[in-house]
From TrEMBL:
Highest taxon in the source lineage: Bacteria
Protein family per UniProt: Belongs to the cytochrome P450 family.
Species assigned in the record: Sphingobium fontiphilum
Matches recorded under InterPro entries: Cyt_P450, Cyt_P450_B, Cyt_P450_sf
Name of the featured protein: Cytochrome P450
Gene Ontology molecular function: heme binding; iron ion binding; monooxygenase activity; oxidoreductase activity, acting on paired donors, with incorporation or reduction of molecular oxygen
Pfam families named among the record's database cross-references: p450
Length: 403
């Protein structure tokens, strides 16, 4: 950790750090086993991190589960409006819906969307999701090895989102390129160009569905209501953009983290093979221990956290990879316990709890069931060196497995 040369006057010098955890590069050490426990052991509950936001921009890091949950339950003092700077980066002002919306309109958006992502509706997709997993695994199960990220974890959740939105599967490679340019870069020009490409593509689809509606999800969004009116095209786009960035990355990153762990520690696979009923709680434990995303809230007014002044407009982290290792909340957080049954904030909290959380959980559970039920015990491929990407979405860029 290194201190920064300059910082705002209200920020004490001893709270200013630059963290390797947000370097946005590949490293050889597993951050969940080294960087994060060290960070929890050495940092105070709140720090001013010079590189916490993409583009090496500053913000406040909260290491405490309780402090983060308190913030998540306080939308009056902490806004999400424009949080990701997606529209601002290209000189526009639309919102990612419902992620960047605040009450009271957020309440109306969620009222329209929650039923569509309710558990029973997601459960109706179970056979379709399982079939997607089976088809992908069948392509390499007899080969004795696979490139897990390229052959499974990137394609599997994206197949499902493209099915939901009725978008062409044959453009998956292009969609993946845009997604990586938006979410896995520190270059704001690259990020902005990718946002423009995604917007142009989605707007074209939306306009076509508006003219020729079908039975697909996008066509039905136009029936949603807010404030006594139908959603407009900008709102439909804002929601589709949310599904695009959420559905094409988070589950992929978490799957890579999970299967890297299982590949490095085959004995943990045996526990799940012997007791497959543990997979449901194991998914929750992996969500705690290998959460990929650091998101943010923005201070809506001058406030204090742990006695530290936070000024309006400053970013405050929802650092799920870090809060999952809070030793004041979790007993032995460095241990991955498949029967832990502890709460976590990896799928959000408060009014912004993840809209797609039931689908995400189902995708993760089915992936583990199908891999463990179809393949023999697997491990990291001989000679392959795992690298870990540290940043706002922590993941393994490549993962070679063999069995």
């Amino acid at each position: 950790m290194a201190t920064a040369a300059t910082h705002p006057a209200h920020v004490p010098e001893d709270l200013v750090v630059t963290l390797p955890l947000y370097a946005r590069k590949r490293v050889d050490e597993c951050p969940q086993e080294t960087m994060i426990p060290q960070l929890q052991a050495t940092l105070p509950p709140i720090s001013y991190v010079t590189n916490i936001f993409p583009g090496d921009q500053p913000g406040w890091l909260l290491t405490s589960y309780e402090d983060t949950m308190k913030m998540l339950r306080d939308p009056d003092n902490f806004t999400k409006n424009g949080m990701g700077k997606w529209a601002q980066n290209i000189g526009e002002d639309w919102l990612v819906i419902p992620t960047e919306a605040d009450p009271p309109i957020h309440t109306a958006y969620r009222a329209a969307l929650n039923p569509k992502f309710a558990p029973q509706n997601m459960a109706a997709m179970r056979d379709q999701v399982r079939e997607r997993a089976k088809v992908l695994i069948a392509r390499f199960k007899d080969r004795g090895h696979c490139d897990f990220v390229d052959e499974f974890s990137e394609k599997y959740p994206i197949n499902i989102v493209l099915d939901l939105l009725d978008l062409p599967q044959d453009r998956m490679a292009e969609f993946l390129t845009w997604e990586k340019e938006m979410l896995h870069t520190n270059d704001w020009e690259v990020r902005g160009n990718a946002v423009r490409k995604v917007k142009a593509y989605l707007m074209g689809v939306i306009e076509e569905r508006q003219k020729n509606p079908g039975d697909d999800y996008i066509s039905k969004i136009f029936d949603n209501e807010v404030d006594g009116r139908k959603w407009n095209v900008t709102e439909v786009f804002g929601h589709c953009f949310n599904l695009y960035i959420g559905g094409l990355d988070t589950v992929t990153s978490l799957l890579g983290n999970i299967f890297c762990y299982l590949g490095r520690y085959p004995e943990r696979q045996r526990e799940l093979r012997d007791k497959p009923g543990l997979i449901v709680t194991a998914v929750e434990e992996f969500l705690r221990a290998y959460a990929p995303v650091t998101a943010f809230r923005i201070a809506a007014k001058e406030i204090e956290i742990r006695g530290q002044k936070i000024m309006p407009g400053e970013y405050v982290s929802v650092a799920t990879p870090v809060t999952g290792y809070d030793p004041t909340y979790y007993d032995s957080p460095e241990q991955v316990r498949f029967d832990r049954k502890a709460p976590h904030i990896s799928l959000g909290g408060g009014i912004h709890k993840c809209l797609g959380m039931h689908l995400a959980r189902m995708e993760l559970q089915i992936a583990m069931e199908e891999f463990l039920g179809t393949l023999p015990e697997f491990r990291i491929k001989d000679g392959f060196k795992v690298q870990y990407f540290v940043g706002n979405i922590m993941h393994v860029p490549a993962l070679e497995l063999q069995w």
